[in-house]
């Protein structure tokens, strides 16, 4: 009997050399896709899923809208499609179904790419958010290389940043520089050239990758101009990951702990479902077909608000104020007293409470866990004070009785670690958050275009119209 199993080596030997090379490349590319190829595979599946779901369930109700919702900041209303992550009040954030501890286990980290450090890479998180799949090490390496190749700023953006007064808040500078990059937007150009609606997602993805690649250089240039730290030179090493290069540009390249902390910080701040101010802003502005640079510039301005991203700057100022008052080895009683003095003065306790969560923020827990693994942080008096406060504050806030969630959110911990590593310029902290939020908000913009979502246009009502409506 003749066997039909043909030996691969024998097949190769029978092939001409050029054909052999093409076959070996085909095998390599099949196992290490580019991010664009991976998204191209997902888009038709998502389009089909939406089409089917809409036709079968388009008329199902997701709940009533109460007057209270309209007046109360639309809390809890299910009114947006958001693919990357879901925030559950009692279990916290999941990214395509994966919790932060799950992500820490499965997403390729610095060590997997032969870099110093252990934490998951924001590139891995970006891949997961865009495709719903865990990338291989090789895929993440390819993405890191792509980002490094696209990381340098055009000179006009450098000049714009250099011309800002040092006294202009770093977040305003960040939004200005990001908005200016729309000068080179492939989406804006494609739209002008009349590309088909079904193709919109492609230049949106190109712009998004380009922007994510350039955010570290923008942020580093702002740091240099405002605070004179780092050297302001765009040193982008193609062998380093996105955050390895960022850390180098802001002067922490040889600080392994800080570089790894920045990776973790930026990976876990990326996405927090769609309704938060920065994510929602990117989606809303993008729904007018503004390109990714314009949409994300607007998102950054929302992130700059003290009830949202700016809270991480506020927490540090507040915690240092507490340290000055209560000393380095404060007792629980001292901390309680300080918390009450904040509340009695009519201020909120920064870093506590959340519009959705009703539990300690898992991002806070991840950062705390990082602190516990690093001796230089474990013994830091400000880190210890923040951790001690997180044990005492819930009790005080419960007794105070106003906030629906008395537990720490991510901002309670994020700034004190940066401070301990020597990055003491608090007004810069939200810029680091701004590098991160792009890896969640921009993938959704790509999905918005892939799914052909329309311009957002909810209905508003005046108080008089509301009164007339309820009397009917
Ligand atoms: C995050 C935040 C804006 C959510 O707001 P929210 O959804 O309106 O929160 P709640 O529904 O629990 O607010 C109910 C009341 O509790 C108060 N409250 C909420 N968090 C509080 C806090 N940390 N300290 C004191 N009071 C607080 C609110 O100001 C509100 O008071 P009001 O009725 O007098 O206006 C709010 O908790 C806050 O201001 N926290 C401090 C800032 C912060 O850490 N922001 C970062 C969030 S990731």
TrEMBL record:
Q: Which InterPro entries match?
A: Citrate_synth-like_lrg_a-sub (IPR016142), Citrate_synth-like_sm_a-sub (IPR016143), Citrate_synthase (IPR002020), Citrate_synthase_AS (IPR019810), Citrate_synthase_sf (IPR036969)
A Pfam family the protein falls into = Citrate_synt
The entry's cellular-component GO terms read: mitochondrial matrix
**Subcellular localization, as worded in the UniProt entry:** Mitochondrion
For this chain's UniProt record, which GO biological process terms are given? Answer: carbohydrate metabolic process; tricarboxylic acid cycle
Return the similarity comment: Belongs to the citrate synthase family.
Cite the GO molecular-function annotations of the record.
acyltransferase activity, acyl groups converted into alkyl on transfer
In its UniProt entry, what is this protein called? Answer: Citrate synthase
Q: Which UniProt keywords apply?
A: Mitochondrion, Transferase, Transit peptide
């Amino acid at each position: 009997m003749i066997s039909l199993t043909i030996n691969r080596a024998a097949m190769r030997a029978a092939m001409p050399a050029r054909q052999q090379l093409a076959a070996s490349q085909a095998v390599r590319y099949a196992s290490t896709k580019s991010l664009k190829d991976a998204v191209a595979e997902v888009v038709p599946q998502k389009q089909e899923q939406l089409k089917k779901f809409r036709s079968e369930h388009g008329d199902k109700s997701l709940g009533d809208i109460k007057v209270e919702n309209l007046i109360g900041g639309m809390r809890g209303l299910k009114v947006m499609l958001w693919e990357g992550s879901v925030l559950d009040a009692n279990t916290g954030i999941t990214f395509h179904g994966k919790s932060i501890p799950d992500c820490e286990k499965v997403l390729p980290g610095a060590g997997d790419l032969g870099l110093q450090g252990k934490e998951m890479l924001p590139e891995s998180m970006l891949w997961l958010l865009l495709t719903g799949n865990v990338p291989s090490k090789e895929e993440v390496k390819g993405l890191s290389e792509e980002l490094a190749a696209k990381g340098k700023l055009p000179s006009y953006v450098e000049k714009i940043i250099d011309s800002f007064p040092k006294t202009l808040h770093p977040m305003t500078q960040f939004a200005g520089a990001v908005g200016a990059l729309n000068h080179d937007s492939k989406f804006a150009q494609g739209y002008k050239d009349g590309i088909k609606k079904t193709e919109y997602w492609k230049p949106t993805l190109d712009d998004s990758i380009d922007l994510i690649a350039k955010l570290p250089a923008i942020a580093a240039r702002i740091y240099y101009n405002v605070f004179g730290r780092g050297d302001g030179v765009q040193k982008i090493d193609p062998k380093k990951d996105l955050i390895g290069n960022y850390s180098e540009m802001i002067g922490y390249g040889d600080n392994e702990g800080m570089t790894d902390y920045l990776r973790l910080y930026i990976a876990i701040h990326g996405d927090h479902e769609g309704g938060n101010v920065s994510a929602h802003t990117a989606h809303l502005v993008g729904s007018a077909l503004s390109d990714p640079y314009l949409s994300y510039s607007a998102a950054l301005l929302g992130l700059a608000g003290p009830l949202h991203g700016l809270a991480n700057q506020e927490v540090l100022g507040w915690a240092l104020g507490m340290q000055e008052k209560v000393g380095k080895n404060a007792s629980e009683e001292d901390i309680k007293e300080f918390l009450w003095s904040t509340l009695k003065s009519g201020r909120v306790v920064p870093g506590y409470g959340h519009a959705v969560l009703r539990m300690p923020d898992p991002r806070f827990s991840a950062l705390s866990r990082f602190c516990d693994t690093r001796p230089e942080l474990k013994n830091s008096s400000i880190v210890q004070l923040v951790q001690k406060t997180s044990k005492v504050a819930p009790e005080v806030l419960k007794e105070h009785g106003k906030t629906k969630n008395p537990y720490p959110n991510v901002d309670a911990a994020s700034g004190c670690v940066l401070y301990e590593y020597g990055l003491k310029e608090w007004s810069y902290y939200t810029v680091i958050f701004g590098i991160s939020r792009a890896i969640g908000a921009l993938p959704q913009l790509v999905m918005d275009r892939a799914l052909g979502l329309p311009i957002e246009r909810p209905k508003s009502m005046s108080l008089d119209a509301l009164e007339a409506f309820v009397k009917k």
